[in-house]
Amino acid sequence: MIKKVKIFLKNLLYSHEFIDNQFLSFIQLKILSKVHQRKYYRIKIKSLEKTKILEKIIDGYFYESRTQNNQMIKVPDLNLYFFENALVNSYSSAVISKNILHYEVFNDKERYNEGFILYHSKKTAVYFLNEVETIEEGFFLAGNGSYNWYHWMIEILPKIIYFDTSHTKVILVNQSCQTIKSMADSLNLITENLNIKIVYLHPRKVYNVKKLFFINEVNKLMFNSENITFSDSYKYYFRKESLNNISNIFKSKITGTETCCKKLFLERKNTHRIAKNDKEIFTFLQQKGFVSADLRSLSFTEQINCLKNAKIIVGTTGASWTNLLFCEPSSYSIIFIPENFKNYRFFEEIGQMLNVKVDYLYYENGENDHDKSEFIIDIKNLENLLHEFEK
């Protein structure tokens, strides 16, 4: 009985149900602060669309997304914002200023409890503070998934193209841009002609930036959702011009004569999401003239070169497919993806905007965990897809 009471009290203490009740939430956060020896705060949320802008960069628009049931997708205006004494964390795309949390809400099913944001409702959020460090000024080039290759290359790094460094020479990035070589190389390449200072933000710190410059989402894939299987709402949008800009910038950096194979199998080593019949797949592809490559073992410029020269690419879904950016128009890709993730066809949408054909070969994984290995790829279906492209 005592054990059940303890479990009940613990569940009550960590419940999110009180967040919109000011009195109950106040008591709950006081207790949590005492238990964890760090301060928790309750704060109102304001949509970034309702926040005063410093400068409009590009008008928004609508486009028909063929990969999302032909829905008309709203791409918001791209704006530059300025915040004074802003609190930020490099793992979160939220900005706290003047006791308001500013966030660009994608749709009402989005969940953005990342970094220093513990949890939230549609109106209210709870955040915590550990160590707070002060920075005089900077442009925020971090946020949700800034440690992830896909989110970095597609959503975060392109912002630098639209930022006028006359506002500030200080660029604030996640520490992963220092510790992950491909991220460091991509940042260095795209900023090599800019007179800037890069400041690396520790993911466990919160920063008080006295003068913060912030650009909202250039491209967006909902980082987290309340329900990964929902299919009645859109989950991503992309600006075609931004994808082509970032693609052309990096491909123009490859000036050597080094070439890669025309048929490429994206190998996955020492990681998750590996097919049970992986060796059988590669043996079949070898007979078709494919060469395998683990992109994580290549330098950034080698990755660009590899994808730029490949005509056909095959492999399992993962961040490596971000490198579709470097494919030439009219190339072809086959991505292995779980059957229950059919609603996430964002690589196909990126391919459409870059004129790269993307097909999916779906496999059964039996549960919602898309990281699971030991799945089986139907080689006959793979052969049929290759035949359709080659005939």
Summarize the model shown.
The protein contains 11 helices and 20 strands.
Question: Can you describe what's shown?
Answer:
There is one protein chain. The protein is α/β, with parallel strands linked by helices and 391 residues long. The chain folds into three domains: 1-37; 41-225, no CATH class; 254-390, Rossmann fold (3-Layer(aba) Sandwich). 27% of the residues lie in helices and 28% in strands. It is built from eleven helices and 20 strands. The strands form five sheets. It has a six-stranded mixed β-sheet. Strand 19, helix 10 (346-354) and strand 20 form a beta-alpha-beta unit. The longest helix has 15 residues, at 22-36. The radius of gyration is 23 Å and the shape is globular.
Quote the beta fraction.
25-35%
> What is the straight-line distance between the termini?
70 Å
Number of domains: 3
Helical stretch tally = 11
Low-confidence stretches: none
Give the tally of β-strands: 20
- Helical content stands at 25-40%
Q: Quick check: average pLDDT?
A: 90
Tell me the major beta sheet.
6 strands, mixed
Spatial strand order of the main sheet: 2-5-13-10-11-12
